[in-house]
Design a protein that fits this description.
Elements: H1 16-20, H2 26-79, E1 95-97, E2 100-102, E3 105-107, E4 122-125, E5 133-139, E6 148-149, E7 160-162, E8 174-179, E9 184-189, E10 192-194, E11 199-201, H3 214-219, E12 230-233, E13 237-244, E14 249-254, E15 262-268, E16 270-280, E17 287-291, H4 304-309, E18 310-320, E19 333-334, E20 340-342, E21 369-377, H5 379-383
Parallel strand pairs: 1-9
Antiparallel strand pairs: 2-3, 4-5, 5-13, 6-12, 7-11, 8-9, 8-12, 10-11, 13-14, 14-15, 16-17, 16-18, 18-21, 19-20
Length: 386
């Protein structure tokens, strides 16, 4: 039996175009890769530009916040300076004798009272090309009391004060004995009030006290106070010192604790802090000049007469953006005529020689800055009619 043959299908005639539809060529692959790379490059550039702008915006906003925080903290503290120091006789305190003991630990002098003219409401220490340091002081007892007067000479070993009046004084008050002529002042703690006899006592011996033993006073040359010396109620002295550290942080050194001082960081990215005294003529309350605390102005050291002329403080805070730009974005200060008046920083005060110097960082021009400045009146000094 013969098996029937199965006819084969006719041969397919595959055309050139049909063969092209079977896959892609190497040239087409290379073209596709090139287009993909170009698209990726464009996306990368757009993303990089967006990210750079975002970082610039964030860092600028951060600099603005840091500057405002720094200025607010300074302004609040300086406005309160001099509160409770009701008598300008305290401005005559050149030599302040102080002592504190608690729990077997003692310190002398107390941090808040250290330095020349330790009762000055505001004191600026010039930082040269760097940042200044400003110390603001106020009494912990805002109301204070009418100062009393010693009526009989008190030897240094005595713990009894014969007073013209004991009105306003109470046990536990911190007072200041003031000898304006000699510039001597002593911190004391009232331990007893004898209203009928018009006497105050400041006895040593308690576990927590501001009154050292007589032997300590004698060996350390503590002064005696004669008739006419003043006794002023000051409470615990609050003293805050502001400055900028090497890490470009605004710091607060709190000297109010009698045993220790503590430094806290208030805000970051502060590259410069400068301050000036607003001074008036003697007997006036109107500021007629702004002076830096430099030897050139003569205000690097203070005396009682100069302190009484200080009616306001002018401060400038320079905050820097954290982002470093590739090209220069900040330029030296120029006046209205286009003349460079400060090659080392931006413009600050138009009425005096620029004082902000940022040249410690050779790349200072590659950063953006926010400058905040304000004038703060010493209202407690003005109200006291000093």
């Amino acid at each position: 039996m013969t098996t029937p043959s199965i006819p084969l299908p006719p041969a397919r005639n595959v055309s050139w175009r049909a063969r092209r539809q079977l896959g892609i060529s190497l040239v087409e692959t290379m073209v596709g890769l090139t287009l993909g790379l170009l698209v990726t490059l464009v996306i990368t550039q757009v993303w990089g530009t967006f990210e750079s702008q975002k970082q610039r915006t964030i860092s600028s906003s951060s600099a603005q916040v840091n500057g405002l925080l720094a200025l607010t903290e300074l302004e609040q503290d300086i406005r309160n300076a001099g509160a409770g120091l009701t008598d300008s006789a305290a401005f005559n305190c050149v030599n302040i004798y102080s002592y504190y003991q608690s729990g077997g630990t003692s310190v002398s002098p107390i941090p808040a009272y250290t330095g020349s003219l330790g009762m000055t409401p505001v004191q600026i220490t010039d930082g040269g090309t760097g940042s200044d340091t400003l110390t603001a002081r106020r009494s912990g007892d805002f109301l204070g009391a009418i100062p009393g007067t010693i009526t009989q000479a008190m030897p240094s070993s005595s713990a009894e004060l014969n007073m013209s009046s004991t009105t306003g004084f109470a046990i536990g008050d911190i007072v200041l004995a003031i000898d304006s002529a000699a510039g001597n002042c002593t911190v004391m703690l009232v331990t007893q009030v004898q209203s009928a006899a018009q006497k105050l006592q400041h006895n040593p011996g308690d576990s927590t006290t501001y009154n050292p033993a007589n032997s300590f006073q004698t060996s350390n040359g503590w002064p005696a106070y004669g008739s006419g010396a003043k006794i002023e109620k000051v409470g615990q002295l609050v003293a805050h010192s502001y400055g900028v550290n090497s890490a470009n942080q605004l710091t607060l050194n709190d000297l109010s604790n009698p045993l220790t001082s503590a430094t806290a960081v208030l805000t970051a990215d502060i590259v410069s802090f400068k301050a000036q005294y607003g001074v008036a003529n003697a007997g006036s309350q109107d500021v007629n000049a702004w002076v830096s605390a430099t030897a050139a102005t003569g205000w690097n050291t203070l005396n009682s007469a100069k302190v009484k002329r200080i009616k306001a403080i002018r401060v400038v805070v320079v905050a820097r953006s954290a982002k470093r730009e590739v090209a220069d974005v900040t330029f030296p200060c120029k006046n209205g005529a286009g003349v460079v008046v400060n090659a080392n920083g931006p413009c600050v005060w138009s009425d005096s020689e620029p004082v902000v110097n940022l040249s410690a960082n050779s790349d200072w021009k590659k950063y953006r800055y926010r400058i905040y400045q304000t004038i703060i009146p010493l209202r407690n000094v003005i109200w006291a009619g000093v």
